[in-house]
Amino acid sequence: MVNARHIKxxxxxxxxRNDSAWIAKLLLSGLLKGSFIPPQYTRELxxxxxxxxxxxGQRSSEYNRLQNILETANIKLSTVVSDVFGVSGWSMITAIxxxxxxPMILANLAKGRLKIKKQELILALEGHLNEHHRFMLxxxxxxxxxxxxxxxxxxxxxxxxxxxxxxxxxxxQTIPEYKNKQLPPS
Length: 186
Hints:
This protein has 186 residues and is mainly α. It has eight helices and no strands. The chain is elongated. The two termini are 47 Å apart.
């Protein structure tokens, strides 16, 4: 396997008909360098990381979609809650999906430091939810949970691959840092 850009700049005619024979002659003459092909292990790990990045992107899109559904129902949860998909926000979204509309009851689902923002939460949760909003929220929640499960599976598989390099990673972590240390005079 050779780099296509490298072949492009080698002189000669590369028609479809004669292409393979011409490339073979170039390779036998030593005019082409072979491309680096990583080992199977590295290619598979790379594929897993790329897939993980795509799934994270899909999940982010679904998070945005869910927030847009809340916004169209005039529920401004994101103005009060820093993490809409944290424990408190997720429990409020679940209650909304299950049919709860009373802002006071929804605000009582707040946990931790969010409890002191109860009045702001009540105002933010006063919306106009209908059955369509609940259905769409339910779909988005289901997709998010599925994507989270999928990410868990991918992470487990990546961990299995990385166990092979566990010893090397430990050795790398023993290298001392020279950030704040002065180098000896030369």
